[in-house]
Design a protein that fits this description.
Keywords: Repeat, TPR repeat. InterPro entries: TPR-like_helical_dom_sf, TPR_rpt. The chain is mainly α and 467 residues long. The protein is built from 20 helices and no strands. 36% of the residues are buried.
Length: 467
């Protein structure tokens, strides 16, 4: 019997069997670019024959989605997920679990859209899931919490902070009535609210939320050291952003204690809290504690990376900052030069990634009185910036030009023969122009922010009057 004479069901079964074999072979060889479309075709066949909710149908769809996601083939993954949702809706009238699976599909779609950077589409999918839950379960039902949480995360990613805060607060209000059974979720909700307030630069409210997360951990999560440490770290970071290091010191010390208890004294997770704690000590002028903390940070990095790794640049820069605060400019310069050497080997002499270390090394050499090296480093910094700016009066050039003008003036006053009055005047005039340009740029940015704020207030006023 020829293929055209083969009954449809039998031919479909044969194709499904062949696809399944080919899929297994492609996966065994690690060829996901072949496995993904094979799994998608298998989903189509099983959907037609078995229905959208059959375990074999869902398994094929999940396999295809997994492979497309690993390949970052977002268009294919999104198309498949949307078709899967459509298929569930089409067959939903006959399936009791249709609503639950449809809602899960919308949530999956929203998360996939976030990964793909399609935030507006993600918001629509998450909002649709929330609307369906509202109609089905009613306001305040626990089922709504996960959709509000997803929507809050999406709005935060979109930069819509007021909407993110509203959604996050709605989640917390719902779950706060279920502390005994949803303590871990409630902890995550408090942290999310804190993160949103921190993004709003309302650091006092952010600290209140992180403090609440600590309290939830103590009351309902057996004082889990990792959760406690993460919340205390965020609290300390918010206090530093608020320029209140006196409020950051103790929480960060406690965060370090908790995270060390959870992960051990050399775990890389300690780096973040050591970094913030060292900054707090430095802001409080406790140079001994800051130096000890940054040295420990260096030791943790050294336990995981070779000495020439760029990871080892960060603690050197921090130790140089401590030396600068102490007035030990020669030591600070030496540490900055070590950091610069490592970064140069990794990124190349003309990489913009060198700019911060170059600037600080030049400043340290200038303070040390090593004018030739300060001039060499400042000239390097200027040369680094020039290809990346709009012109010679771009404010980004100010740090290098100002140092070169200062160096030339000091050299002239010291009686250097190779420094001419005209060159000193040129550099001073250039630095002055750059300072005026920088001031004008700040003024323009300030005016733009004022205009944006006024427009937002006007729109808000219009919405209220419309109500």
């Amino acid at each position: 019997m020829s293929d055209r004479d083969t009954p449809h069901d039998e031919a479909t079964e044969l194709e499904a069997w062949q696809l399944d074999m080919q899929l297994r072979a492609a996966e065994g060889e690690g060829r996901l670019e072949l496995a993904a479309p094979l799994a998608e075709r298998l989903f189509e066949i099983r959907d037609q024959k078995l229905g959208a909710f059959h375990p074999d149908t869902l398994a094929a769809a999940t396999t295809a989605l997994t492979h497309y996601t690993k390949l970052t083939q977002w268009a294919a993954a999104l198309g498949l997920l949307e078709r899967l949702i459509d298929a569930r809706m089409l067959h939903g009238a006959e399936e009791p679990a249709a609503l639950e699976k449809h809602l899960q599909g919308l949530s999956d779609l929203a998360r996939l859209l976030v990964d793909a950077g399609e935030l507006d589409k993600a918001r629509r999918a998450a909002t649709k899931a929330l609307e369906i839950k509202r109609k089905t379960f009613g306001e305040g039902h626990l089922e709504l919490a996960s959709s509000f949480a997803l929507l809050a995360d999406i709005e935060l990613e979109r930069g819509e902070l007021d909407s993110a805060a509203d959604a996050a607060l709605a989640v917390f209000e719902i779950r706060s009535k279920h502390l005994a059974t949803h303590a871990a979720d409630l902890y995550a909700d408090a942290v999310r609210i804190g993160d949103i307030f921190a993004a709003m630069k309302d650091y006092e409210e952010a600290r209140k939320s992180y403090r609440l997360a600590v309290d939830i951990t103590a009351r309902a999560l057996d004082s889990d050291p990792r959760k406690m440490g993460e919340a205390l770290l965020r609290y300390g970071r918010a206090a530093l952003a608020e320029e209140k290091p006196e409020f950051a010191e103790r929480p960060l010390e406690s965060a370090l204690e908790m995270l060390e208890k959870a992960s051990g004294p050399k775990d890389l997770s300690l780096i973040v809290v050591l970094d913030e704690l060292g900054k707090a000590y430095l802001a409080l002028d406790d140079y001994d504690a800051a130096e000890e903390t940054f040295e420990r940070m260096r030791d943790v990095y050294a336990a995981h990376y070779p000495p020439e790794s760029t990871h080892c640049v960060v603690p050197r820069v921090h130790l140089a900052e401590v030396a600068t605060k102490r007035g030990e400019h020669a030591r600070a310069a030496a540490l900055y030069e070590e950091a610069l050497s490592i970064a140069e080997k990794e990124f190349g002499k003309e990489s913009l990634r060198l700019r911060v270390v170059l600037d600080r090394a030049a400043e340290a050499r200038l303070e040390e009185g090593n004018l030739p090296r300060a001039k060499e480093l400042s000239t390097w910094l200027l040369r680094l910036f020039e290809p990346h700016v709009a012109g010679p009066d771009d404010p980004a050039l100010l740090p290098a030009v100002r140092k070169l003008a200062d160096i030339a003036l000091r050299e002239k006053l010291a009686g250097a023969d190779d420094v001419h009055v005209e060159e000193v005047a040129r550099l001073l005039d250039w630095a002055t122009r750059l300072m005026h340009a920088a001031a004008a740029q700040i003024t323009a940015e300030t005016e733009a922010l004022k205009a944006k704020r006024a427009q937002a207030q006007e729109e808000e006023s219009g919405e209220r009057s419309g109500e």
